[in-house]
Write a structure and sequence with these properties.
Blueprint: H1 13-28, H2 33-40, H3 44-50, H4 59-68, H5 73-92, H6 108-121, H7 127-134, H8 142-149, H9 158-167, H10 175-193, H11 231-238, H12 243-251, H13 259-263
Helix pairs in contact: 1-5, 2-3, 2-4, 4-5, 7-8, 7-9, 9-10
Length: about 270
C-alpha cells in the first residue's frame, strides 16, 4: 500500500472539492500512484501534486488524472474551472471592478472587461487551444486572441466575435446577448467619433476631419493594437488627450482589417449609427 496522503487544507472550497474528487476516483479505480502514472502518462509525483489541493493544478494534468482513473473528464473539467474561478476571485481581481454582464455592456471598455472575464471563466485556455476551438483556419489567430484577452483589441466583425465565444465555450443559446453587446459597443464608439474635434497644430491623425484620412482610419481605431499603452490609457487618448500620448498612438497602431474588409457586411464599420 502507498503512503497516506496529507489532508487537504486549502481555503479554496472549489479546489478542495476537486482534490477530494480526484482522490476518490483513484481509490474507486483501485490504483496506487505508480499504477496511475503508467495509465495517465505523468510522473507519480506530478499526480500526487495534482490531488494535493496545495494549488490549482494545470488543466491537462487534471484531465490526464481523471482519464487514468476511467473517470468522467467532463466532471473533472467542471470542477477544475470552478477551482480556478475561485482562485481568480480571491487572488487575481483585487482592486478590479467587476465586469458587466453582456446586457450591461455599453462601450469597448465594458466589452473588453466582459470578454476577459468570460475567458477567465472558461479556465484561461491557452491561445493554441482557443485557436483550435474557434473553428476553421484564420477564424481566431493566436495573435488576435492574445490582444483580445489582454484588453488591447475587440473583434472587428461578428464572425470573429463568435469565434472568440466558441473558443471560450460559451453556449450558443447565450450568443444572442453577447452579439447584442458587441453591436452596442461598436455603435456607441462610432457615435462618439462623430463629434471628435480636429487635432490642433495641423497634425493629421486618426480622428482628424481630413477628407482622406490616413491609415489607421477612424473606423479602425477601436480594433487596433496599441503598443506601449494599456487599453484604459488608449481609450483616454482616444477622447482627445493628452496630445503627447496621442502622437505615440498614431505612430504605433495597426488596423485589424483592410478597406475591403471594412466594407463587407457584418463588420463593425458597416454598423449604422
Amino acid at each position: 500500500m502507498g503512503r497516506t496522503e496529507k489532508d487537504i487544507t486549502t481555503a479554496n472550497a472549489a479546489l478542495h472539492e476537486l482534490a477530494q474528487w480526484l482522490r476518490d476516483q483513484r481509490r474507486s479505480a483501485g490504483l496506487n500512484y505508480r499504477q496511475l502514472a503508467e495509465r495517465a502518462g505523468l510522473h507519480a509525483t506530478t499526480l500526487q501534486r495534482v490531488a494535493s489541493g496545495s494549488s490549482v493544478p494545470p488543466r491537462q494534468s487534471v484531465l490526464a488524472y481523471a482519464r487514468g482513473c476511467d473517470a468522467l473528464a467532463e466532471e473533472a473539467l467542471r470542477l477544475w474551472i470552478r477551482a480556478r474561478q475561485e482562485h481568480i476571485r480571491s487572488h487575481g481581481r483585487r482592486g478590479r471592478q467587476p465586469a458587466p454582464s453582456p446586457a450591461l455592456v455599453r462601450d469597448f471598455a465594458d466589452l473588453s472587461a466582459a470578454m476577459r472575464e468570460q475567458y477567465e471563466n472558461a479556465g484561461g485556455p491557452p491561445l493554441r487551444v482557443m485557436e483550435e476551438r474557434a473553428g476553421g483556419f484564420g477564424a481566431l489567430p493566436r495573435s488576435s486572441a492574445h490582444r483580445m484577452v489582454n484588453k488591447q483589441a475587440v473583434p472587428h466583425c461578428l464572425d470573429q466575435f463568435r469565434a472568440f465565444l466558441r473558443a471560450c465555450e460559451v453556449p450558443e443559446d447565450d450568443w444572442k446577448a453577447w452579439e447584442d453587446a458587441w453591436s452596442r459597443a461598436w455603435r456607441f464608439e462610432k457615435e462618439g467619433e462623430a463629434g471628435l474635434p480636429e487635432v490642433a497644430g495641423g497634425h493629421q491623425g486618426i480622428w482628424s476631419k481630413s477628407p482622406t484620412p490616413p491609415v489607421p482610419r477612424r473606423a479602425d481605431w477601436p480594433a487596433t493594437t496599441v503598443r506601449g499603452l494599456d487599453y484604459k490609457t488608449a481609450m483616454t487618448v482616444r477622447r482627445g488627450r493628452p496630445l503627447r500620448a496621442y502622437r505615440r498612438v498614431v505612430e504605433h497602431t495597426e488596423p485589424l482589417f483592410t478597406l475591403e474588409e471594412e466594407k463587407a457586411p457584418g463588420t463593425a464599420a458597416a454598423i449604422s449609427a
